[in-house]
Amino acid sequence: MVTMFQSRMHQPGAALLGVAGCMAAVAAGFVGGYFVFGTRSEAQAATAPARLTERQTKPTGVPAAPPALGAYLGREVELVTAHGNVKLTWAELGAEIDTEEVRPTQGADLQALAAKGSLPLRIDRDKASKALFALKAKHDLSPINAYLDLEERKIYDDRVGKGLDVWASLPRLEAAVRQGADKLELVNVAVPAAITKQTIGIDDISTVMGHHLTRFPVTDRDRNFNLKLAASKLNGVVLKPGEEWSFNATVGERSEKEGYKIAHVITAGEMVDGLAGGTCQISTTLFGAAFFAGLDIVKTINHSRPSAYTPLGFDATVVWPNVDLKLRNPYEFPVVIHYRVANGEALVEVLGRPRPYDRVVFERHVVESTPYGTEERLDDEIPQGVTSIDQAGFNGYKLERFRRFYKGTKLVKSNKWTLEYRPVTEYVRRGTSTDPELKPPAEKPVTRLQEPKGDDFKMEQ
Q: Cα–Cα distance between 461 and 213 in angstroms, integer?
């Protein structure tokens, strides 16, 4: 063996040829493997797209919907709403064929499927909700609030409204389409009124318990505006049994911001222009109605001087925020204030049930009187010797006011107040100018309040 090895070592060319031959054999093996595996992979790659394309173009196998099923979509369904019935097609309500359920139901009797609620139809909820909201806008019944008709002295009850509940109706719609229904009652919910008879708090306004009327000149527009504005705050106010009520708290601040205008007011016993002039006529007229209705007069203050629109001793002044008129309802039933200002008249009625008195009497007795004084106001813009009256005088009075309640001829109870009116100074304007060219001003009409004709006065309702 050694000899053979040694002999080959001594032949280098032969050795190299042997090594090269081995390497060539190995290389041939790799190359053969490459062609075998490479050719197979390329064949697979070449055939794979062909098979994918075949799969993509292969029919889905979903059968076409039978014409009879499509006809269901054109059928009309009668929808029961709160305000009458409406007919729409199922297609208009968002119905469509459910393609996923067509194969299992192929060849089945559609009437049998409808009876079981298994028609292969579905509802597109977006389309259906739009259709139902459109119905809701047209067919909902709005609630009606209870209200008082003070002119007719009637109370109208509230009425509950009805509104379509779209989201609660959708499940009904989905079930009905699978049945092929031709009529469906949608879900309607009650919508309560915001103001009910119980909320108003009064159930009988059939009787005028007391009333009072005062008059005003229709030419004084700003004062008339103030009268109507203040009265609007009072009209319809309900006084519950035992409730104490405040004029100032209800009418509120009489300011320019609230809309009041400049008009005549009494300040320091003199008629001057002031904000919210006329409000006291509203409080006085209400006082008169409350007086005869038998409401408790909790707080009242008379004017510093008498008013032309009401009898002496039968007035009630108010000044924001401290001078107030306060009343209390002494009855076991509620009452309501009805105020109307129009055509030169302010009228207040207190409405409720019949009062427990046959007559309520206002009596006035003058205790003493004080003559008024006169003051001159010199004016160099008026010719000398010419005079005019800026304000007519009126005597001052101290008097007693009574309210007497009668049942038949029997005096049941009475109230008493002591009032005092200061004398109203008469202001005379006297000219002092000696200018011969100066002309006297036009005469202004003077309104004088009528002095009491006697010490006693009475009126009743």
A: 13
